[in-house]
Write a structure and sequence with these properties.
The structure holds 3 protein chains of 3 kinds. By secondary structure, chain A is of the alpha/beta class. Helices cover 40% and strands 15% of the residues of chain A. An 8-stranded mixed β-sheet of chain A has the order 3-1-4-5-7-6-8-9, with helices on both faces. In chain A, helix 7 links the parallel strand 6 and strand 7. Chain B is elongated. Chain B has a two-stranded antiparallel sheet with strand order 2-3. By secondary structure, chain B is α+β, with helices and mostly antiparallel strands. Helices cover 11% and strands 15% of the residues of chain B. In chain C, the strands form 4 sheets. A 6-stranded mixed β-sheet of chain C has the order 10-12-11-14-15-16, with helices on both faces. Classes of the chains: A alpha/beta, B alpha+beta, C alpha/beta. Chains A and B meet through helix 1, strand 2 and helix 9 of A and strand 1, helix 1 and helix 2 of B.
Chain lengths: 310, 92, 409
């Protein structure tokens, strides 16, 4: 069983990057790299990660890394995987490298959904990690298809009027062998999921909630706390779906089994400045109720019913 | 441009290395300070550091690059890490 | 191997014996038979490549780039809207310096939907950094696939190349052509050796943020690659002739130009038609010749200057238009000749949207040009017809409704 002590020591994410203090993506990258190791080709879709890795001629990531256009995550992976196949045919590759795509919610939910969908439908053998900070962070925190109801962004200054999409569910509908969600506050859960993804052939999709201190408006020291609250309030459900069967894991499993008490969505929203306006407004209470309802709805869709503790 | 021969195939290839944004320790307003007596080597600070600035062995903090985000102090279960205001001129 | 096949099918066979390893492609009329034949060749075991049936052309170019960066020889084909859809990625492919080859079946861009031949699609991509060649026969498209990899993969070049082939005229008509054996072609284009790859043994980051202080050099470097290409294009054509005994010109091809007083400049299959026009005019005692622009990027500046010197008249045929200016080939020819050659030049635009262009029309316009009867730019074959009148009638009917909103007729 993996423990913090058994996690590999080697750092493929190198200190002194351009990331903001407390950045969730840099932490997620660090952990993901520990699971995959150095025999990995990394494709970074246009996002904060394109910038936090540093600018020419220095890089914070010690892996072969290709930065790709915003809409092309899945397609770029297809090309690399096919290229690797060609090299194997020529007898030039000893060990096939892992192929990892790292994209934000912009490059996954919106502009990149087509390429991801195509790659999944073609059963491309790669791992796709979407680090979801629920907005277009890199261009200055504009709304995305992943922005939740009521959230402030620069393009929804009055709070977003629509619910977010659920790409993990869309990926399950693609019948790929592995879909999972993750949270920074549960690093061993994420590590295990990356390890499992590594061992499966086909398209693997993992979505990591990435609370962004400047975008969600909370102090940089609270990134893990917010990640934890997201799970404990039910706003972010931790599960994995293997060949069509969904199981809750870690923090969410603990709530369902009554081991940890579910926190209210209101408490979660109050931690973040981006919901301050929504909470203060007459519509705020409405948004809160709708979000709690969405939590119940998501649980019901995944679980079949709403468990007692939810 | 004097030496145009070197421009043949000039593409944007970056080498991995620490400190690609310079000595990011200079970003700090607060610095984490560890009390070894309270530390139980649980490794939570090591796991949660977004900048890979804490060593697994002994949890030594790399002040050259630590940005002072405060996550380690926030998450430490024994309150072994405190965030102390950075004093200008002090490097470590 | 001698085949009687369509241009599209011949492209597939050429890609096969060229040792192409990865083909990401999306179907679009009139390119579809290229990828269908590739899929068939792979399925029947005659071709050993990975075909990626991507879900769009933008993704096709993305996969083309990334496959090439792993070190595989990558190929694709598209046309018209497909080419336009991948525009962003065309810039990317040239900027990342991958030696990929793509056949573009020249087709008009809508609206309205027009599947027939003109050069608007590829002309619109001339600034992307891709090399561009325009072929004029079935044999040439086969041989140019091989020459293309010979040029793109040369370490002094390492830029992508677009092989332009006219829709239907070349893509769908059947001609016999010689497709060499794989072993022969392998002697002409040996194994692709990249300058760098995505390789865990040597981790580097490519394409991260590049500040103004470092960026300009990467772009000047692309132009230097195009300049080296001029040399390699000639070498590739010479070597091809030595090995396979066939010649299609290098940067340009000339036909009966030596003693010509008038030169007609054209690209693609219209140049083949112009050869017939030249013959017809020669029979009438007119000293006319053809200059076929084969490579459009890099543009044959020196070749044009040398050939056009001392001529009495030059007529340039465009099957495209840069709106707000004129036909693109015409502009570029004049730019190449500016200050270097005083021969008067006229531009004609014909064949837009696949309208059939006969050698009689070309000859007629050439005669007018030589007599000084043409404007600087002439739309050579447009004419209002009763068909067009329908639009005008509809517009009249709309006028009645729209100029008086809210009133019923």
């Amino acid at each position: 069983m993996v423990t913090l002590k058994s996690l590999p020591e080697e750092e493929l994410f190198l200190a002194g990057s351009t990331a903001c203090a407390g950045c969730p993506s840099s932490l997620a990258l660090r952990t993901a790299f520990k699971a995959l190791g150095s025999n990995t080709i990394l494709i970074v879709v246009a996002s904060c990660t394109s910038v936090l890795q540093g600018s020419y001629p220095l890089s914070a990531i010690n892996l072969p890394l290709m930065n790709v256009a915003f809409a092309t995550g899945g397609a770029s992976a297809s090309g690399v995987v096919a290229g690797i196949e060609a090299l194997c045919k020529r007898g030039e590759l000893e060990e096939k490298p892992n192929v990892l795509v790292w994209a934000g919610d912009g490059g996954t939910y919106d502009i990149g959904i087509q390429a991801l969908s195509g790659a999944a439908e073609r059963e491309t053998d790669f791992i796709y990690v979407c680090y979801n900070n629920e907005m277009y962070s890199n261009t200055g925190t504009q709304r995305s298809g992943a922005t939740p109801l009521g959230a402030w962004t620069t393009t929804t200054p009055g709070g977003k009027a629509q619910h977010r999409k659920d790409i993990a569910q869309i990926m399950i509908a693609h019948r790929i062998p592995y879909v999972a969600t993750a949270s920074l506050a549960y690093p061993l859960d994420f590590y295990n999921k990356m390890m499992k993804a590594k061992s499966i052939r086909g398209t693997k999709y993992i979505e990591m909630l990435a609370p962004c201190p400047p975008g969600w408006k909370f102090p940089s020291s609270k990134t893990i706390e917010v990640s934890r609250f997201a799970v404990q309030s039910g706003m972010w459900l931790l599960y994995e779906n293997e060949n069509g069967e969904t199981k809750f894991t870690s923090g969410t499993k603990n709530i369902i089994e009554g081991k940890v008490k579910k926190k209210s969505v209101k408490e979660y929203l109050e931690m973040q400045g981006r919901f301050k306006q929504a909470l203060a407004s007459p519509e705020g209470e409405q948004a809160e109720i709708l979000l709690e309802e969405q939590v119940s709805d998501s649980i019901k869709r995944l679980h079949g019913f709403i468990p007692e503790y939810f | 441009m004097s030496d145009n021969n070197k421009l043949d195939y000039m593409t944007s290839m970056s080498r991995p290395g620490k400190g690609c944004a310079g000595d990011t320790g200079e970003w700090r307003v607060f610095r984490p300070v560890k009390d070894d007596e309270k530390c139980n080597n649980c490794l939570i600070c090591w796991v949660y550091c977004p900048e890979a600035c804490i060593e697994k062995e002994g949890q030594v903090i790399d002040y050259q690059y630590c940005k002072g985000c405060g996550i380690c102090a926030e998450e430490c279960p024994t309150d072994a890490i405190s965030m102390i205001k950075e004093v200008k001129g002090e490097k470590s | 191997m001698r085949l009687l096949e369509s241009g599209n099918h011949l492209v597939a066979h050429a890609a096969n014996v060229a040792g192409v390893e990865v083909v990401p492609a999306y179907p679009i009329t009139p390119q579809t038979q290229v990828i269908e034949e590739i899929a068939e060749l792979i399925n029947s075991g005659k071709m050993d490549a990975v075909y990626i049936p991507v879900e769009s052309e933008h993704s096709a170019c993305a996969a083309l780039v990334s496959a090439s960066l792993t070190g595989a020889r990558a190929f694709s084909a598209t046309s018209s809207h497909g080419l336009a859809y991948m525009h962003e990625m065309l810039h990317y492919a040239a900027g990342v310096r991958v030696p990929v080859v793509m056949v573009n079946v020249n087709r008009a861009l809508g609206p309205g939907w027009n599947i027939w031949c003109d050069h608007q699609d590829s002309i619109s991509q001339r600034d992307t950094g891709w090399m561009q060649v325009y072929v004029a026969s079935h044999q040439e498209v086969v041989d140019t696939v091989f020459q293309a990899y010979r040029i793109t993969e040369d370490h002094s070049v390492l830029l992508p190349m677009m092989i332009n082939m006219d829709a239907f005229v070349l893509s769908h008509t059947y001609m016999d052509a010689e497709v060499p054996e794989r072993e022969e072609v392998a002697r002409y284009i040996p194994r692709f050796v990249p300058k760098w790859t995505l390789d865990p043994r040597m981790p580097v980051t490519h394409g991260s943020v590049v500040y103004p202080s470092d960026f300009s050099e990467t772009r000047q470097s692309m132009q230097i690659g195009q300049e080296h290409a001029r040399v390699v294009i000639k070498k590739a054509a010479d070597e091809f002739r030595d090995m396979f005994g066939r010649w299609h010109g290098d940067m340009i091809e000339t036909y009966r130009a030596d003693d010509a007083e008038q030169l007609i400049i054209a690209m693609g299959s219209l140049a083949s038609e112009t050869k017939v026009a030249v013959d017809a005019l020669r029979e009438q005692g007119k000293a006319v010749g053809l200059l076929r622009v084969r490579f459009f990027r890099p543009f044959p500046i020196e070749e044009l200057r040398a050939e056009c010197e001392g001529r009495e008249d030059i007529m340039v045929i465009d099957r495209d238009y840069s709106y707000g200016m004129e036909g693109a080939l015409f502009t570029e020819v004049k730019a190449a000749l500016y200050g270097k050659c005083s021969a008067p030049a006229k531009g004609i635009v014909v064949g837009i949207g696949g309208r059939d262009v006969t050698y009689e029309l070309i000859a007629r316009l050439a005669e007018k040009s030589r007599k000084g009867e043409l404007e600087e730019v002439t739309w050579g074959d447009t004419q209002m017809t009763s068909s067009h009148a329908v639009t005008l009638e509809c517009l009249d009917d709309f006028k009645k409704i729209l100029e008086h909103p809210g009133k019923s007729n």
